[in-house]
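Record type: monomer structure entry
Structure origin: computed from sequence
Chain ID: A
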Amino acid sequence: MNFNKAEFFASYGFLSQIPPSERIEIAFAGRSNVGKSSLINKIFNRKKLAKVSSVPGKTVTINFFDLENIYLVDLPGYGYAKVAKTEKTRWADLIEGYLNDTSRDLALVFSLVDMRHPSTEDDVHMINFLVDNEIPFVVVLTKADKLNKTQREKRLEDLKTELPYYNDITVIPFSSITAEGVDEIKGIIEDVALEE
């Protein structure tokens, strides 16, 4: 699979705008500013495929990227406090509406969690939601390069109690700076694409 050939396909601000599934989809979910856009750019070896911002809540649409026989889907970040309640509701409707749509061919969700900080209530809610709805997922711990060895070991230990089903899920530490975890994530995407 040639990850360099990924292209931006379309953005949708409302669920009703998204056309029916025509191929398998792999989604990326996580709270605002967790590093979804940086991860997508790193996987595709591009600087600006997904828009990166230091301002949380920048991705306010569902963005589809075209890669050979699959779509990669960048969901809006959740849990960002500094937006209007109506906007928060729209994001929640978009994210949950997309994930709840059983007509979509959603093969996998990469659930991104910032490795530096304790998991948020939203992170836990997302994992429980994916488990309850039997949606396959992988947890990606972003910004792994920001921790030293001791901090990293402590966070990995704490995550065992913070995240539900920790011992039963695949967890990948990731860094868009050092490229840690990139090959593992690419391998999972390729495996999912081959299964279809």
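Annotation 1: The radius of gyration is 16 Å.
Annotation 2: Residues 57 and 82 are 9 Å apart (CA to CA).
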